[in-house]
Amino acid sequence: MSKGIITVRDLVKKYEKLTAVDGISFSVKSGEIFGLLGPNGAGKTTTLEIMETLRDKTSGEVFIDGLSVDKDQNEIKKIIGIQLQAAGYYPNLHLDELIALFAGLYNVNVDPDELLKLVDLNEKKKSKFKELSGGQKQRFSICTTLINDPKIIFLDEPTTGLDPQARRNLWNLISGIKAKGTTVMLTTHYMDEAEILCDRVGIIDNGKIITIDSPDNLIDDLVKKGFERPRHVKLASLEDVFISLTGHAIRDE
Amino acid sequence: MEKNNYSQIRAMLSLTKASLTALLRNPSAVVFNLVFPLIFIIVFGFIGGGGFRIDVAFENNSDTLNPVYQGLKSSGTVKIERDMKDDLAYSELEKGRIDAVIGIQKDQSGKTVVNLKTTKASPERGSILKMIVNEIVDKQNLAVSDVKIPKTELKEQVVEGRKFKTIDFILPGQLGFSLLSAGVFGTAFIFISLRQTLVIKRFFSTPVKKVYIILGESLSRLIFSIFTSLIIILIGYFFFGFTLINGFVTFLNMMIMSVIALLVFLGFGFVVSGIAKNESAVPSIANLITLPQFLLAGTFFPISNFPEWLQPVSHALPLTYLNEALRKISFEGAGLYDVRYDILIMAAWGVVVYAIAVKVFKWE
């Protein structure tokens, strides 16, 4: 196995009856976007939360930038940014105050305006989190992962529940973060998203990794096996129609 | 290296600042901890402020130029109901709404007769009025008699005492009310809400340690309560004549007591947040802890007013000891050492409550 910024070896997570993660191994290269794909309940979030040191594992090894999740939890937390699938923010605070709070929790000095500008929310800095639209909420969540200038950010289903415009907007944001050299580890169950965004993907089901490769290679492999789409492939999809009719502009303001 | 310089204190303080900002934006916190106690102080302050008064009506044909009428009018204790028809006056007397009806007429011999009718509805006031009228009548008789040197003379002396005002009882109780509700309701709600909305989980994603999350929140409650206690005491002192017997030292001692009490009450809040499954379960559990104390701990009424079988219950509650200590400090000028037993009992409650809190407190 090649040595990466993240190494997961024989990871197992058992709950009382259920084995959520059943001996998975993979590594993530520095600077890439790695996607963990799978249906709901496949074990994506559990795997991610073990890597984020938020959940204990049953067995196996996980190293984040050479640090073990068993021993160096606090050191790991300092170099990663985490966007949880469902997370709340302190009630009754404005966005810039929330940024200041996290800056304190990470012990860093940041300019809230600059960070909010990065996710196009600087005009909303005096709004409360609950007043934001779905897309804005996700952008703010991603914004909070960048506060400590992390080496790796973890995004758990960042575009679930968003409309096509907001999803595209978020893809641009994530690509931009990668372009600055940050490693991105994300989960999704949208294949179009993985195809556009991810350098490599691991497909996970029932707690086991079935395959890991780049989206292009996986598609080529399938075609080589003689796979054909049952219907004639159209040159555009319905989503392409939708976007061309409604435009790229985000609607959540 | 920057890695090793991570300061949990800095993280804690940023949480304290955030929590305080949110707290001040939350109307219910301000209402519960500041507005309610002040309303109680105003209400009870005015109920007790009237002093002792005897309501008297005169029969319509009374001789109002007579010295008895003038004497009662200027006595300060008697309030004369004017323009009350005789029929109404007697029916009001029977109901006890006025304390006496007086008629002053001259009889055929030219003697002035004062008819005093009191009511069994208010016997004490009746007898005091009788004494006042008697005194005036005696003076009149003495003035027209030949006796220049009376046989007996009453010399009265009133010893200067400290006046215990209603506010001196009410304000410490309201301070206790404010601290207990801040400690229990405030803490329970915020921790449940942070837990349920996964705010805590997001905090766990940062290097801050769990204990500093609790400390940061508690510190913000502490600052907020010190601030509200300050306002309550100052408003009481400047607007309602609350007694701070040794001035600033008394004030300082009261603030220290408030801090000690809040630390104990925060423990109750942690217990409630651990027991309650969700936010809607908080009020019932929190009321179970706070209501009996508000009623039985001498917050609104002195414990000595309760039947004897109930008093041991009062003497088991932590708020009782805060109230007692605050009253001893503010009115009797007791120091912290003088109220050490009250502090000790509160501390004992603290140990018990925090032991339970550690057992039941939930992070997820």
Description:
The complex is a heterodimer of chains A (253) and B (364). Chain A is of the alpha/beta class and 253 residues long. Chain A is 35% helix and 23% strand. Chain A has a single domain, classed as P-loop containing nucleotide triphosphate hydrolases (Rossmann fold). In chain A, α3 crosses α4. In chain B, strands 2-1-3-4 form a 4-stranded mixed β-sheet, with helices on both faces. Helices cover 63% and strands 6% of the residues of chain B. The longest helix of chain B has 31 residues, at 166-196. Chain B folds into 2 domains: 6-48 and 163-360, no CATH class; 52-144, D-Maltodextrin-Binding Protein, domain 2. In chain B, 37% of the residues are buried. In chain B, α9 (248-275) runs antiparallel to α10 (282-296) and α9 runs parallel beside α13 (340-360). In chain B, a hairpin with a 5-residue loop joins β3 and β4 (112-118). Classes of the chains: A alpha/beta (253), B alpha/beta (364).
